[in-house]
Amino acid sequence: MIEIKEATKVYSNGTVGLNKINTTIKQGDFVVIVGRSGAGKSTLLRAINRLHDITDGEIVINGKSLTKANGKQLREMRRDIGMIFQNFNLIKRNTVLKNVLSGRVAYHSTMRTLLGLWPKADVDLAHDALNRVGIPDKAYVRADELSGGQQQRVSIARALAQEAKIILADEPVASLDPLTTRQVMDDLRRINQELGITMIVNLHFIDIAREYATRIIGLRDGELVFDGPVEDATDEMFTQIYEREIKKDELLGV
Ligand SMILES: Nc1ncnc2c1ncn2[C@@H]1O[C@H](COP(=O)(O)OP(=O)(O)OP(=O)(O)O)[C@@H](O)[C@H]1O
């Protein structure tokens, strides 16, 4: 369970990225965060992984304060949180398998990972992860030889190899075509349902948000303006979150 209590983020230039956000996300939820550009979606995701610190409030994961954690405790908490980015964040010249294995770095000494001395159990885990995202045959291919959708699947496999209990995905399909978008979203849904991994996903496309989320969080100007089951996220509600009618380019439309 992730408890976000009065979370506030003020950037050093004074911009309020998040303003007193309160919400609780249960293990196994599939949450999609929506809102206009600049609403605070990325700021919230980065706060949940402590890629940056909130300036006020607290985030508690399974009873432990992420906000107060440091050193070993913070490393252990972050180990449970996988991250997926729009631009995949792979090491392009490395093989797919090496990229997936990099999900294991937090479990071993730096020296061991630098030398690539992965235990067999880790290598097996990495192959299993590639199997789960449907590209077991790509293990020894260089990452930059894959299509965008395949590269995003590698990054999902990396989060699986990490044995993350929570996956944060920041616009994971923004660089993909409509067909590949669905394939990647299907992967995320399958992983959520089969493994019970909590998904928190920022999405630009409202129809995709509705199709895949079990729960929608709507942000507007750093404030939480909607938080509820997807069935309650009506057209009127989206118009309120966006403070205007939904535009065509906010629908994938296939
Ligand atoms: N490093 C930063 N320094 C100052 N202000 C920032 C920084 N990062 C984000 N902001 C501001 O914080 C607010 C929220 O930004 P954020 O990137 O979280 O929005 P978003 O909803 O993810 O937008 P988008 O959909 O365009 O990615 C915006 O006003 C943005 O300009």
UniProtKB/TrEMBL annotation:
<dbReference type="InterPro" id="IPR012693">
    <property type="entry name" value="ABC_transpr_PhnC"/>
</dbReference>
<dbReference type="InterPro" id="IPR050086">
    <property type="entry name" value="MetN_ABC_transporter-like"/>
</dbReference>
<dbReference type="GO" id="GO:0005524">
    <property type="term" value="F:ATP binding"/>
</dbReference>
<keyword id="KW-0813">Transport</keyword>
<dbReference type="GO" id="GO:0015416">
    <property type="term" value="F:ABC-type phosphonate transporter activity"/>
</dbReference>
<feature type="domain" description="ABC transporter">
    <location>
        <begin position="2"/>
        <end position="246"/>
    </location>
</feature>
<dbReference type="InterPro" id="IPR027417">
    <property type="entry name" value="P-loop_NTPase"/>
</dbReference>
<dbReference type="InterPro" id="IPR017871">
    <property type="entry name" value="ABC_transporter-like_CS"/>
</dbReference>
<dbReference type="GO" id="GO:0016020">
    <property type="term" value="C:membrane"/>
</dbReference>
<keyword id="KW-0547">Nucleotide-binding</keyword>
<dbReference type="InterPro" id="IPR003439">
    <property type="entry name" value="ABC_transporter-like_ATP-bd"/>
</dbReference>
<keyword id="KW-1278">Translocase</keyword>
<keyword id="KW-0918">Phosphonate transport</keyword>
<keyword id="KW-0067">ATP-binding</keyword>
<protein>
    <submittedName>
        <fullName>Phosphonate ABC transporter ATP-binding protein</fullName>
    </submittedName>
</protein>
<dbReference type="InterPro" id="IPR003593">
    <property type="entry name" value="AAA+_ATPase"/>
</dbReference>
<dbReference type="GO" id="GO:0016887">
    <property type="term" value="F:ATP hydrolysis activity"/>
</dbReference>
<dbReference type="Pfam" id="PF00005">
    <property type="entry name" value="ABC_tran"/>
</dbReference>
<keyword id="KW-1003">Cell membrane</keyword>
<keyword id="KW-0472">Membrane</keyword>
